[in-house]
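BUG: 3D viewer hangs when loading the predicted structure for this chain

Environment: internal workstation, default settings.
Expected: structure renders.
Actual: progress bar stalls at 90%.

Input used:
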Amino acid sequence: MFQEIQEIVDDLAEDLDRAVVVEDEHHALIAHSPHRRQVDAIRERSVFMRQTPAEMIEWVATQGLRESEGPLRLPANPALGAESRICVPLRADGVLIGILAVLDSQQTLGPDAVERCGAAAAVLAQRLEDLRLLNQAGAARERELVDALLSATGAARAEAGASLIREGRLPPGRLTVVGVFPGRAPHASALQRVIRRARGAVATRGVAAAARADHAVLLVPLGAATPRDVAEQVEQALAPLVASGVLAEPPLVAYGEAAEGWDAVAAAHRHACRAARVARTIGELGADGPVGWEQLGVFGLLASVPSDELGRLALVEPLRRLRDKPELLHTLEVYLDLAGDAKRAAERLALHRASLYYRLHRIEELLAIDLKSGTDRLAVHVALKAARLTGPP
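Structure tokens produced before the viewer hung:
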């Protein structure tokens, strides 16, 4: 089906001696002809990024293209580096599903040429609709298998994994799991765009993917790459979706460990989701790129505990006695994070050593603990980290 679309584009470009592009309804590139003559900066950037730049999308929206029922000439926009072009909306049952654009810098295409653009657009619209329906069926099957792999157990999980390999959706071997978590409730179409771009960034041998309730999940063959390598590739590939407004803000990309065996793959997905949860709560995690399970430390252990259970861990409730004493909470956490090194803690807190000791003594009294006891120190340190995941004590 895609080959037919490409052939129509190439034939029209040859017929008109112009550069031709077909995009989807969100201005993501579907097919393009070889460069003919001089092309403008927008065409070059669109082909390079596989997405029309955001500023061009905004301008096109003001020209009435999405509402037009037939070919429309867009004027040149020198500020954007855009030459004049003939654009034709591609519709199925009245719904916009794509755009045909023919570069015409000198505005020399006459009525006959514009009519040929309209005829090609009618055929392209039908092929795009066929491709969309075919992709929907394939995506539904893939989503069904991925969901079974991640959610089922035993024989059902093993059969889902075997089907992914048997149907050519995944190769055998080590995998990692990458989750993409948009900052706000994502629209289903936005998650599909996420999957398409992410798949294109890492699909060296086959990637299985599915849109879930609040994130997109990808099962990616590792080869010689590390899980973080893959996650970074995905993060970089999604930048144009933020620039074009498909995603309201940069998504959080989280990844699990390298996994071999279907139970291990399901565990890697759980770990990626927990990493995302921790990163959303602990701001410093995920600030410098994707967040992985191996980065979580004690938070990985705590994130394995159901949220409603975390608040009932020993000493979490006693910490509430410091609810109105944030300086004592901060002092305690800094002191414990520095392994009880009073000198470094005093420097970090900009306190005189005597003031630090006074605060620690007050903390011992209020919590009924002994900070010289390794057991008490461990318990209260874990409680402080648990409190970070459940909210301020």
